[in-house]
Amino acid sequence: MRRREFIVGLSAAAAWPSVGDAQQPRGMRRIGVLMGIGEDDPEAKPRVDALRQGLQERGWKEGQNIQLEYRWTAGDLDRTQRLAREIVDLKPDVIVVHSTPAVNALRQLTNTTPMVFALIADPLGSGFATSLARPGANMTGFMNVDAPMASKWLELIIEIVPKVKRVALIFNPNTSPYQSYLREFEVAAPKIGVQAVATPVVDAGELERAITALGQQPDSALFVVPDVFVQVHRQLIIRLAEQYRLPGIYPYRFFPTSGGLLSYGIDTVGIFRQTASYVDRILKGEKPGDLPVQAPVSFKLIVNLKAARAIGLTIPEAFLLRADEVLE
Questions:
Q1: What is the mean pLDDT of the chain?
Q2: Per-residue pLDDT for 92 more than 50?
Q3: Is there a domain that residue 8 lies in?
Q4: Beta strands at 139-143 and 166-171: parallel, antiparallel or unpaired
Q5: Cβ atoms within 10 A of the Cβ of 190, count?
Q6: How far apart, in Å, are the Cα atoms of 56 and each of 27, 44, 51, 96, 302?
Q7: CB contact set of 95 (below 8 Å; sequence gap of 6+)
Q8: Cβ neighbours of residue 61 closer than 8 Å, sequence gap 6 or more
Q9: Interatomic CA distance for residues 46 and 268, integer angstroms
Q10: Are residues 182 and 71 in the same domain?
Q11: Could you give the 3-state DSSP secondary structure of residue 319?
């Protein structure tokens, strides 16, 4: 109730309309879309629909004056490299790119094709922009949740589970710009009397072992760095958190809607609708390096009561009253 307010694609071409290698009609603009998630991810269609809608609102209609070429990496680094090359070889007018590994792959291939990134955690630390106001080079875009949010996540988990003594920060060092989150995490944890446990994992096996080990220690909790790796493996994370009765806080709404305990973060689908505004401006002649990188300004608290009951947790009523959405 509201209080306030599909297997990885076996073909490189997406299921949504695309003319692929067909000759591009005169006047048609081509947009490459390199997604860090899989085509079968429940988040895939809403994000693509939001991008399309945002473009249509600005006069860009698929099949009429633009064609969209989709590629889906599903968090696989080797696949990301291959599909990045496919996108660049299409010679698009602009590329929309999601996930830090995908941006890294593309910038190794081109420094001229305009790019708009979406949901990137640390564009400065990753070297994607020289400044937020004037990113320079050939890319700009929309940020993810910024690192200082780590202290807020800690405060929220302690508010609903005061007895927590240690909190694990789970991240994949190969796919995530985790350093800024880890710094904030390690500074904030002692101030509220908990132990910070840096937990790097690079595959599903390490992820399962790490959460299993955490579950053997009483009074533990977890949260995950915003990253494509944890999104691809969210069902495993949620299942293990419930199995070991671990409170978990997550950066995206799709975690609690998938069965996780709670999230505090941004509207990921809305970011893709916003991305269309920069694609439009670039297609009309503006340079990406002159368009400021935009940071999120709106955050929502989502609570899953079923998940709370599954781990024997009672959420305080005052906390629920502050939530933007409570899932029964």
A1: 91
A2: yes
A3: no
A4: unpaired
A5: 10
A6: 16, 18, 9, 16, 30
A7: 31, 32, 33, 34, 87, 88, 106, 113, 114, 115, 116
A8: 55
A9: 9
A10: no
A11: helix
Amino acid at 61: K
Q: Are strands 300-304 and 325-327 parallel, antiparallel or unpaired?
A: parallel
- Stretch 164-177: mean pLDDT: 94
Q: List % helix, strand, coil for the chain (3-state, nearest 5).
A: 35, 20, 40
Cα R_g (the chain), whole angstroms: 20
**307 and 188 in a common domain:** yes
- For residue 224, give the 3-state DSSP assignment: strand
Name the DSSP letter for residue 28: -
Structure token pair of residue 97: 């790119």
What would the two tokens of residue 292 be? 């400021």
Q: What percent of the chain shows pLDDT beyond 90?
A: 85
CA distance 242 to 275: 35
Q: Please check whether residues 200 and 78 belong to one and the same domain.
A: no
pTM of the model: 0.89
Report the 10 Å Cβ neighbour count for 151: 16
325 three-state secondary structure:
strand
Backbone region of residue 64 per phi and psi (left: phi > 0; alpha: psi in -120 to 50; beta: other values): alpha
Tell me the mean pLDDT in the region 209-218: 97
Q: Which domain holds residue 95?
A: 29-143+267-290
Distance CA(195)–CA(207), nearest Å, equals 20
The rounded distance, in Å, linking the Cα atoms of 212 and 206 is: 10
Residue 25 has a pLDDT of 52
> Would you state the pLDDT for residue 269?
95
Torsions phi, psi of 80, nearest 5? -60, -45
Mean pLDDT of 31-41: 97
Residue 318 contacts by C-beta under 8 Å, 6 or more apart in sequence?
none
The confidence score (pLDDT) of residue 177 equals: 86
With 0-12 / 13-18 / 19 or more C-beta atoms within 10 angstroms meaning exposed / middle / buried, residue 241 is buried
